[in-house]
Amino acid sequence: MERDDVENLLLLCQKHHTIVDNDTNLYTVEKLKGIKNIHELWVDNKLNTSPSWEAKIEQAYYLNIPRLSILSSDLNEEANKYNLEKIDTLSNLGMDLFYLMENFKSTINKIDLKSIPLNEAISYPDDIVGCYVSFTERFRTKDIIIPGSYGIKTTPQEKLNPHIYTNIDGYKIVLSINYKWITTSTAYCFFRPSGGHSNFSGYGIVNDIDTTAKVIYITPYIIGLKKEKPHPILLKRAHGDERELEELISNNSKNPKNSDVHWNGDIDECNCCGFDFSYLNYMVDAIVNGCGFNMCATCFLKSHKKLGMGYGQAYIKEGKKWRYIAG
Length: 327
Description:
Mean pLDDT: 83
Low-confidence stretches: none
Distance between the termini: 71 Å
Shape: elongated
Number of helices: 9
Number of strands: 11
Radius of gyration: 25 Å
Strand order of the largest sheet: 3-4-5-7-6
């Protein structure tokens, strides 16, 4: 084996490189190889067991389109629909911004994004550069101004250092912000709160760490408002409407040939009210103004009174699938 073979490669920051060089009696070849093996096992374990980012985003305040497009061909395809190079901010897209935000949010909430929760990753500060992390924290904001494209004369972004930051276990966490990827004027209100801080959930990559100053730098991919569990009152009402829907289902006959028919595709939320279907048991594929809608029992009962062709077909959730049962 040659001295410069990859098996002998050990990547060290400047601080630890100096420590090793200054104490070669302690840091023998065998000890350094042992350190390398332990680290590689840790990385391999994290790559194979890193949990998926389970948090769903209800409102997207920040979408780093170029970074997100790398994660999924669907996101890249969506981004290519818009001429992003010629705009100053996403708000310049006008009504197209709504479609971009909804399509990106829907895809992000579906794909399997591996990440390490930020509050856990900090336990290994020397090993997290290049790791994807997820977070739900209270952040302070700095140098985030309303850009000139909103008709307000402001200091150019390049003369400022727009970012949000928080502190976890003695480390300052800094997320740089590019005005271009802030989604709406409402989103700017959260990045410029009167109290100086906001609660954000999101996903990003650790791109640098200063272990001496104890600062971790993260490039955010998405920042927004996490989708919370529905309020108990809303859940109770929704489940009550499902019991009413069950009566319609029991009075409706179905074709036995369709007993094994399942809905083709994912269903995240009611197309009318946005209620999260993960908390519900039934879905109705109903016709609204000539278009098919995935509706919760509550919305279906408000606008329809029966199941059947031209009205709606009912499905029941079985695991991750939806099976046709009536209509």
